[in-house]
Design a protein that fits this description.
With 325 residues, the protein is α/β, with parallel strands linked by helices. Helices cover 29% and strands 25% of the residues. The strands form three sheets. Strands 6-5-11-12-13-10-14 form a seven-stranded mixed beta sheet, with no helix packed on it. A six-stranded mixed beta sheet has the order 8-2-1-9-16-15, covered by helices on one side. The protein has a three-stranded antiparallel beta sheet with strand order 3-7-4. Bound molecules: flavin-adenine dinucleotide (FAD).
């Protein structure tokens, strides 16, 4: 099947999890591609580092890498709580934390990249700049929450913990990372930052996009992947694996089509299919935010269960049904 490998130069702007993965995938297959990112190697990326191990293993196998090297803590159980609901415990089926900085460093190692912003002139520019959407530009009806996270030696729980704030105002997490913890808050109300422990070695923050922007994922010769197009779960904030998956989908489209227009068309279609649950989960989040609790929310259960299990949580609806409605 014809593809555009030999005929165009591809620029990837942003070497976070999605851009770094795509740079390796395309380079290994002989595409003409260069990655750009101005961030210094020592930059500490604000992220909980949690993902499902098996998903990482599957995606890294595509580029001949092994996931074991990156695991910091493998979880056994997660407690999910809420101010009015109490705590629920679930077994974990692969939820772990990984050294994301090392992963991204390894992904780009030895490849063609420059430590600066990407030039805008290119046959095809991949916008992997995360929440900024630097090249795609601002989105209609965007929605992001403030997120702040600390690295600390002490936390209230030893295994994974998450709790939800009332009225969909965000969430709090404690994730073990080896002999430390990531404790963070993602919220629309910065008052909640007071929950963060005072004893901390580091504090970092940025916004996190929770709105899927699957219908605003390309503009001209600019194609977005990852958080730039909202591949982040609106109910858990999980974005690492979904962003790498969007990069893999774009890679396959580039491999399988001979014209940029067909690449874009096919990519947008497959992205909408892969992340079809996100618009529904965003609707659920908005319902909580506007105080709409009730039996109507049960219709979102299928997507919510799929999402939580995909994150490595053996979620059981019967345990929490009363708090959803
Ligand atoms: C506090 C916090 C906690 C989180 N916790 C988790 C978690 O536990 N698990 C999980 O799965 N997800 C989590 N997420 C979400 C996850 O980190 C992101 O969704 C995911 O990493 C997005 O990857 P990305 O490659 O799309 O973007 P990013 O990782 O944000 O990478 C974007 C890159 O673009 C670069 N860049 C910006 N502008 C330019 C430019 N003009 N030119 C070139 N480069 C540019 C930046 O330097 C950056 O390296 C969390 C997010 C936050 C904020």
């Amino acid at each position: 099947m014809p593809n555009i490998k030999g005929s165009i130069l591809i620029t990837i702007a942003g070497l976070g999890s999605s851009g770094a993965y795509l740079l390796r995938r395309l380079s290994q297959d002989g595409f003409g591609v260069t990655g750009y990112d101005p961030k210094p190697d020592s930059y500490y990326i604000p992220c909980g580092y949690a993902l499902k191990f098996q998903e990482l293993a599957k995606i890294l196998a595509n580029v001949g890498m092994e996931a074991d090297r990156y695991v910091l803590s493998m979880g056994k159980e997660i407690t999910i709580g809420g101010e009015s609901t109490g705590d629920f415990r679930f077994n974990l089926t692969g939820l772990c934390t990984v050294d994301k900085n090392l992963l991204e460093k390894d992904l780009v190692s030895g490849l063609r990249r420059e430590r600066r912003k990407a030039p805008s002139s290119s046959d095809m520019l991949i916008d992997a700049t995360g929440v900024s959407r630097y090249y795609l530009g601002p989105a209609r009806d965007d929605f992001a929450m403030y997120a702040r996270e600390v690295v600390t030696v002490r936390s209230t729980h030893q295994d994974f913990y998450m709790s939800y704030f009332p009225s969909g105002k965000g969430y709090y997490w404690e994730f073990p990372i080896g002999d430390r913890f990531h404790v963070g808050v993602g919220t629309s109300d910065p008052e909640y930052f007071r929950m963060l422990p005072a004893e901390r070695e580091r504090v970092v923050g940025r916004k996190i996009r929770l709105k899927p922007l699957l219908d605003q994922a390309a503009r001209g010769n600019v194609i977005g992947i990852g958080e730039a197009i909202g591949t982040v779960s609106p109910i858990t904030g999980e974005g690492i694996i979904p962003s790498m998956k969007s990069a893999e989908i774009l890679y396959q489209c580039l491999r399988n089509h001979g014209e940029i227009e067909r690449v874009v068309e096919n990519y947008l279609c497959r992205i909408r299919e892969e992340f079809s649950r996100y618009p529904r989960l965003f609707e659920l989040l908005q319902r909580f935010r506007s105080g709409r609790k009730g039996i109507g929310n049960i219709r979102f259960a299928r997507e919510a269960i799929h999402d939580l299990r995909g994150f490595g949580i053996d979620f059981r609806l019967w345990k929490v049904a009363s708090s959803l409605i």
